[in-house]
Amino acid sequence: MSEHKASHRSPLLPDRYPIQDFFICDVTDAIPKDDMGSMEHPIFSLSTKPDRSIREYEHNGVKITITPSVLGLATIHDKDILIYCISQLVAKMNAGEQLHKTLHLKAYDLLVSTNRNTDGRGYEQLEAALDRLSGTRIKTNIKTNEERIKEGFGLIDSWKVIRHSKSERMSEIQITLSDWVFNAVLGREVLTLHRDYFRLRKPLERRIYEVGRKHCGKQDEWTISLELLKKKCGSASEDFEFRRLVGVICKEDAEYKHIPDYAVVIDGDNVRFVNRHTMKPLPAQETTFFPTLDPETYNDARIVAPGYDVYALEQEWRNFWVESGKPELKNADAAFIGFCKSRYSRNQHRE
User: What is the crossing angle of helices 226-233 and 239-256, to 10°?
Assistant: First the structure.
Protein backbone atom coordinates (compact mmCIF):
# COMPACT_ATOMS: atom_id res chain seq x y z
CA MET A 1 0.00 0.00 0.00
CA SER A 2 2.83 2.38 0.81
CA GLU A 3 4.30 1.82 -2.68
CA HIS A 4 0.89 2.50 -4.22
CA LYS A 5 0.57 5.76 -2.32
CA ALA A 6 4.12 6.79 -3.21
CA SER A 7 3.45 6.20 -6.91
CA HIS A 8 0.49 8.60 -6.71
CA ARG A 9 2.33 11.31 -4.77
CA SER A 10 2.28 14.66 -6.53
CA PRO A 11 5.63 15.45 -8.14
CA LEU A 12 5.28 18.97 -6.74
CA LEU A 13 6.10 19.88 -3.17
CA PRO A 14 3.15 21.37 -1.26
CA ASP A 15 2.70 25.11 -1.62
CA ARG A 16 3.60 25.90 1.98
CA TYR A 17 2.89 29.62 1.81
CA PRO A 18 0.25 30.36 -0.86
CA ILE A 19 -0.08 33.98 0.29
CA GLN A 20 3.39 35.47 0.31
CA ASP A 21 2.82 39.22 0.10
CA PHE A 22 2.55 39.44 3.90
CA PHE A 23 5.98 37.89 4.39
CA ILE A 24 8.18 39.66 1.84
CA CYS A 25 9.39 42.67 3.78
CA ASP A 26 12.31 44.12 1.81
CA VAL A 27 10.53 44.47 -1.53
CA THR A 28 6.82 43.74 -1.84
CA ASP A 29 5.92 41.06 -4.39
CA ALA A 30 9.45 40.47 -5.67
CA ILE A 31 9.07 38.17 -8.68
CA PRO A 32 11.48 35.21 -8.92
CA LYS A 33 14.32 36.10 -11.31
CA ASP A 34 17.25 33.97 -12.46
CA ASP A 35 20.49 34.95 -14.20
CA MET A 36 20.82 33.78 -17.80
CA GLY A 37 24.41 32.55 -17.44
CA SER A 38 23.65 29.86 -14.89
CA MET A 39 20.37 29.03 -16.66
CA GLU A 40 22.19 28.17 -19.86
CA HIS A 41 25.26 26.46 -18.41
CA PRO A 42 25.59 23.83 -15.64
CA ILE A 43 27.01 25.75 -12.68
CA PHE A 44 25.19 23.86 -9.91
CA SER A 45 25.36 20.23 -8.86
CA LEU A 46 22.31 17.99 -9.25
CA SER A 47 23.53 15.63 -6.55
CA THR A 48 21.73 15.35 -3.22
CA LYS A 49 24.97 14.13 -1.62
CA PRO A 50 28.19 16.14 -1.21
CA ASP A 51 29.73 16.47 -4.67
CA ARG A 52 33.46 17.15 -4.39
CA SER A 53 34.42 16.59 -8.03
CA ILE A 54 35.99 19.34 -10.13
CA ARG A 55 33.79 19.91 -13.17
CA GLU A 56 34.91 21.10 -16.59
CA TYR A 57 32.39 22.33 -19.14
CA GLU A 58 32.87 23.70 -22.65
CA HIS A 59 30.24 24.53 -25.25
CA ASN A 60 30.30 26.91 -28.24
CA GLY A 61 33.38 28.71 -26.95
CA VAL A 62 32.14 28.98 -23.36
CA LYS A 63 34.48 27.40 -20.82
CA ILE A 64 33.66 26.86 -17.15
CA THR A 65 35.62 25.21 -14.37
CA ILE A 66 33.74 24.64 -11.11
CA THR A 67 35.80 23.71 -8.07
CA PRO A 68 34.13 22.65 -4.80
CA SER A 69 35.16 23.31 -1.26
CA VAL A 70 35.54 20.42 1.18
CA LEU A 71 31.79 20.80 1.79
CA GLY A 72 31.02 20.04 -1.85
CA LEU A 73 29.68 21.97 -4.82
CA ALA A 74 26.76 24.36 -4.49
CA THR A 75 23.58 22.49 -5.45
CA ILE A 76 20.61 23.45 -7.58
CA HIS A 77 18.60 23.82 -4.34
CA ASP A 78 21.27 26.13 -2.91
CA LYS A 79 20.61 28.31 -5.93
CA ASP A 80 17.29 29.33 -4.34
CA ILE A 81 19.28 31.84 -2.29
CA LEU A 82 20.81 33.43 -5.37
CA ILE A 83 17.43 33.55 -7.11
CA TYR A 84 15.96 35.31 -4.09
CA CYS A 85 18.83 37.83 -4.01
CA ILE A 86 18.55 38.50 -7.75
CA SER A 87 14.78 38.92 -7.42
CA GLN A 88 15.20 41.49 -4.67
CA LEU A 89 17.77 43.45 -6.66
CA VAL A 90 15.63 43.52 -9.82
CA ALA A 91 12.63 44.70 -7.82
CA LYS A 92 14.74 47.47 -6.28
CA MET A 93 16.05 48.40 -9.72
CA ASN A 94 12.50 48.64 -11.07
CA ALA A 95 11.61 50.86 -8.13
CA GLY A 96 14.46 53.20 -8.98
CA GLU A 97 16.52 52.39 -5.89
CA GLN A 98 20.29 52.28 -5.81
CA LEU A 99 21.72 48.76 -5.87
CA HIS A 100 24.44 47.37 -3.61
CA LYS A 101 26.29 44.05 -3.78
CA THR A 102 25.55 43.43 -0.10
CA LEU A 103 21.94 42.60 0.70
CA HIS A 104 20.39 42.70 4.17
CA LEU A 105 17.70 40.04 4.21
CA LYS A 106 15.26 38.51 6.67
CA ALA A 107 16.00 34.81 6.90
CA TYR A 108 12.32 34.01 7.41
CA ASP A 109 11.30 35.92 4.26
CA LEU A 110 13.87 34.04 2.20
CA LEU A 111 12.66 30.67 3.45
CA VAL A 112 9.01 31.51 2.82
CA SER A 113 9.60 32.98 -0.64
CA THR A 114 11.50 29.87 -1.76
CA ASN A 115 8.91 27.49 -0.26
CA ARG A 116 11.31 26.09 2.35
CA ASN A 117 10.50 24.91 5.84
CA THR A 118 10.85 27.51 8.58
CA ASP A 119 11.63 25.07 11.37
CA GLY A 120 15.08 24.66 12.92
CA ARG A 121 16.15 22.28 10.18
CA GLY A 122 15.26 24.85 7.55
CA TYR A 123 17.59 27.41 9.10
CA GLU A 124 20.39 24.83 9.40
CA GLN A 125 20.04 23.94 5.72
CA LEU A 126 20.09 27.63 4.83
CA GLU A 127 23.41 28.15 6.60
CA ALA A 128 24.90 25.05 4.97
CA ALA A 129 23.79 26.34 1.56
CA LEU A 130 25.51 29.68 2.20
CA ASP A 131 28.71 27.80 3.01
CA ARG A 132 28.58 25.86 -0.25
CA LEU A 133 27.76 28.97 -2.30
CA SER A 134 30.72 30.90 -0.92
CA GLY A 135 33.04 27.87 -1.09
CA THR A 136 32.32 26.89 -4.70
CA ARG A 137 34.79 28.60 -7.04
CA ILE A 138 34.10 29.44 -10.67
CA LYS A 139 36.46 30.19 -13.53
CA THR A 140 34.74 31.11 -16.79
CA ASN A 141 34.90 33.31 -19.85
CA ILE A 142 31.15 34.08 -19.76
CA LYS A 143 30.50 37.80 -19.97
CA THR A 144 28.01 39.51 -17.69
CA ASN A 145 26.99 43.08 -18.51
CA GLU A 146 29.77 43.13 -21.14
CA GLU A 147 32.40 42.40 -18.49
CA ARG A 148 34.47 39.23 -18.46
CA ILE A 149 35.54 37.87 -15.07
CA LYS A 150 38.74 35.90 -15.64
CA GLU A 151 39.85 35.19 -12.11
CA GLY A 152 38.31 32.58 -9.87
CA PHE A 153 35.35 33.78 -7.85
CA GLY A 154 32.68 32.43 -5.57
CA LEU A 155 28.98 32.60 -6.31
CA ILE A 156 28.75 34.81 -3.24
CA ASP A 157 31.71 36.71 -1.82
CA SER A 158 30.71 36.47 1.83
CA TRP A 159 27.82 36.03 4.21
CA LYS A 160 26.98 36.88 7.78
CA VAL A 161 24.19 35.67 10.04
CA ILE A 162 22.76 37.73 12.88
CA ARG A 163 20.90 35.78 15.55
CA HIS A 164 18.54 36.69 18.37
CA SER A 165 20.54 36.67 21.60
CA LYS A 166 17.94 34.65 23.53
CA SER A 167 16.51 32.20 21.02
CA GLU A 168 19.63 31.93 18.84
CA ARG A 169 17.19 31.93 15.90
CA MET A 170 18.65 33.34 12.68
CA SER A 171 17.06 36.76 12.15
CA GLU A 172 19.02 38.65 9.50
CA ILE A 173 21.40 37.54 6.77
CA GLN A 174 23.92 39.75 5.05
CA ILE A 175 24.97 38.36 1.67
CA THR A 176 27.59 39.96 -0.55
CA LEU A 177 27.20 38.79 -4.12
CA SER A 178 30.07 38.17 -6.53
CA ASP A 179 30.76 40.74 -9.24
CA TRP A 180 29.69 38.13 -11.79
CA VAL A 181 26.17 37.76 -10.36
CA PHE A 182 25.82 41.46 -9.56
CA ASN A 183 26.85 42.46 -13.10
CA ALA A 184 24.24 40.08 -14.52
CA VAL A 185 21.57 42.01 -12.62
CA LEU A 186 22.94 45.41 -13.68
CA GLY A 187 22.88 44.22 -17.28
CA ARG A 188 19.32 42.88 -16.83
CA GLU A 189 20.57 39.48 -17.97
CA VAL A 190 17.81 37.80 -16.00
CA LEU A 191 14.59 35.94 -16.72
CA THR A 192 11.46 35.48 -14.65
CA LEU A 193 10.75 32.04 -13.18
CA HIS A 194 7.38 30.55 -12.40
CA ARG A 195 6.85 30.43 -8.62
CA ASP A 196 6.24 26.68 -8.86
CA TYR A 197 9.93 26.29 -9.67
CA PHE A 198 10.48 26.19 -5.91
CA ARG A 199 7.98 23.33 -5.63
CA LEU A 200 9.78 20.99 -8.04
CA ARG A 201 11.08 18.05 -6.00
CA LYS A 202 13.79 16.66 -8.26
CA PRO A 203 17.03 18.56 -8.97
CA LEU A 204 16.91 17.37 -12.60
CA GLU A 205 13.38 18.77 -13.00
CA ARG A 206 14.57 22.18 -11.85
CA ARG A 207 17.50 22.11 -14.23
CA ILE A 208 15.37 20.95 -17.17
CA TYR A 209 12.89 23.76 -16.51
CA GLU A 210 15.74 26.31 -16.41
CA VAL A 211 17.08 25.10 -19.76
CA GLY A 212 13.60 25.25 -21.29
CA ARG A 213 12.86 28.68 -19.83
CA LYS A 214 16.13 30.05 -21.21
CA HIS A 215 15.96 28.54 -24.70
CA CYS A 216 12.26 28.02 -25.43
CA GLY A 217 11.15 31.27 -23.83
CA LYS A 218 7.91 32.41 -25.45
CA GLN A 219 8.27 30.28 -28.58
CA ASP A 220 5.52 27.76 -29.21
CA GLU A 221 8.04 24.95 -28.85
CA TRP A 222 11.76 24.16 -28.84
CA THR A 223 13.67 20.90 -29.30
CA ILE A 224 17.04 19.78 -27.95
CA SER A 225 18.85 16.47 -28.28
CA LEU A 226 19.10 14.26 -25.22
CA GLU A 227 22.87 14.37 -25.59
CA LEU A 228 23.03 18.17 -25.47
CA LEU A 229 20.39 18.36 -22.73
CA LYS A 230 22.48 16.04 -20.58
CA LYS A 231 25.50 18.28 -21.15
CA LYS A 232 23.59 21.45 -20.30
CA CYS A 233 22.13 19.84 -17.19
CA GLY A 234 25.57 18.81 -15.97
CA SER A 235 24.32 15.30 -15.32
CA ALA A 236 26.90 12.70 -14.30
CA SER A 237 24.57 9.80 -15.20
CA GLU A 238 25.28 7.33 -17.98
CA ASP A 239 23.41 8.08 -21.21
CA PHE A 240 20.88 5.27 -20.74
CA GLU A 241 20.20 6.32 -17.16
CA PHE A 242 19.76 9.97 -18.13
CA ARG A 243 17.26 8.92 -20.79
CA ARG A 244 15.38 6.88 -18.18
CA LEU A 245 15.32 9.76 -15.67
CA VAL A 246 14.08 12.22 -18.29
CA GLY A 247 11.50 9.66 -19.41
CA VAL A 248 10.12 9.40 -15.87
CA ILE A 249 9.85 13.19 -15.64
CA CYS A 250 8.08 13.37 -19.00
CA LYS A 251 5.66 10.60 -18.01
CA GLU A 252 4.80 12.35 -14.74
CA ASP A 253 4.43 15.67 -16.54
CA ALA A 254 1.99 14.11 -19.01
CA GLU A 255 -0.14 13.02 -16.05
CA TYR A 256 0.25 15.94 -13.63
CA LYS A 257 1.34 18.81 -15.93
CA HIS A 258 3.59 19.88 -13.10
CA ILE A 259 6.55 21.35 -15.02
CA PRO A 260 5.87 25.11 -15.05
CA ASP A 261 5.26 26.93 -18.33
CA TYR A 262 6.22 24.00 -20.62
CA ALA A 263 5.16 20.45 -21.34
CA VAL A 264 8.26 18.24 -21.68
CA VAL A 265 8.11 15.34 -24.13
CA ILE A 266 10.68 12.77 -25.28
CA ASP A 267 10.62 12.52 -29.06
CA GLY A 268 13.09 9.83 -30.21
CA ASP A 269 16.56 11.05 -29.25
CA ASN A 270 15.26 14.56 -28.61
CA VAL A 271 13.35 16.37 -25.88
CA ARG A 272 10.66 18.80 -26.93
CA PHE A 273 9.46 21.72 -24.82
CA VAL A 274 5.93 22.84 -25.67
CA ASN A 275 4.73 26.22 -24.42
CA ARG A 276 1.71 25.84 -22.14
CA HIS A 277 0.86 29.47 -22.99
CA THR A 278 1.15 30.58 -19.39
CA MET A 279 3.47 33.07 -21.12
CA LYS A 280 2.44 34.65 -24.38
CA PRO A 281 4.35 33.33 -27.43
CA LEU A 282 6.42 35.77 -29.45
CA PRO A 283 4.52 37.36 -32.33
CA ALA A 284 5.45 36.01 -35.75
CA GLN A 285 6.31 39.51 -36.94
CA GLU A 286 6.23 43.10 -35.75
CA THR A 287 2.97 44.93 -36.47
CA THR A 288 1.71 48.50 -36.25
CA PHE A 289 -1.00 47.48 -33.81
CA PHE A 290 -0.86 48.01 -30.08
CA PRO A 291 2.31 46.45 -28.63
CA THR A 292 1.77 43.27 -26.63
CA LEU A 293 2.98 43.25 -23.03
CA ASP A 294 4.44 40.26 -21.24
CA PRO A 295 2.23 39.08 -18.33
CA GLU A 296 5.09 39.59 -15.87
CA THR A 297 5.28 43.27 -16.83
CA TYR A 298 2.04 43.94 -14.97
CA ASN A 299 3.64 42.59 -11.79
CA ASP A 300 6.71 44.78 -12.32
CA ALA A 301 4.39 47.75 -12.90
CA ARG A 302 2.73 47.18 -9.52
CA ILE A 303 6.15 47.39 -7.89
CA VAL A 304 7.18 50.70 -9.49
CA ALA A 305 3.69 52.23 -9.07
CA PRO A 306 2.31 50.82 -5.80
CA GLY A 307 -1.37 51.52 -5.19
CA TYR A 308 -2.16 52.20 -8.85
CA ASP A 309 -4.51 50.26 -11.12
CA VAL A 310 -1.93 49.00 -13.63
CA TYR A 311 -4.57 48.31 -16.26
CA ALA A 312 -5.77 51.92 -16.06
CA LEU A 313 -2.14 53.01 -16.41
CA GLU A 314 -1.78 50.74 -19.41
CA GLN A 315 -4.74 52.39 -21.11
CA GLU A 316 -3.27 55.84 -20.44
CA TRP A 317 0.08 54.68 -21.83
CA ARG A 318 -1.53 53.25 -24.97
CA ASN A 319 -3.48 56.49 -25.52
CA PHE A 320 -0.25 58.47 -25.12
CA TRP A 321 1.49 56.14 -27.58
CA VAL A 322 -1.25 56.64 -30.20
CA GLU A 323 -1.29 60.42 -29.70
CA SER A 324 2.50 60.43 -30.13
CA GLY A 325 2.15 58.92 -33.59
CA LYS A 326 2.75 55.27 -32.65
CA PRO A 327 6.56 55.53 -32.50
CA GLU A 328 8.54 52.31 -32.86
CA LEU A 329 9.07 50.60 -29.50
CA LYS A 330 12.17 48.45 -29.28
CA ASN A 331 11.03 47.23 -25.86
CA ALA A 332 7.36 47.84 -25.13
CA ASP A 333 7.60 46.32 -21.65
CA ALA A 334 10.44 48.64 -20.63
CA ALA A 335 8.58 51.62 -22.09
CA PHE A 336 5.46 50.81 -20.08
CA ILE A 337 7.44 50.32 -16.86
CA GLY A 338 9.14 53.67 -17.47
CA PHE A 339 5.75 55.32 -17.97
CA CYS A 340 4.41 53.85 -14.70
CA LYS A 341 7.53 54.87 -12.81
CA SER A 342 7.29 58.42 -14.17
CA ARG A 343 3.59 58.71 -13.34
CA TYR A 344 4.11 57.50 -9.78
CA SER A 345 7.13 59.77 -9.22
CA ARG A 346 5.33 62.82 -10.64
CA ASN A 347 2.32 62.35 -8.38
CA GLN A 348 4.53 61.75 -5.35
CA HIS A 349 6.23 65.11 -5.90
CA ARG A 350 2.87 66.83 -6.10
CA GLU A 351 1.77 65.55 -2.68
Answer: 90
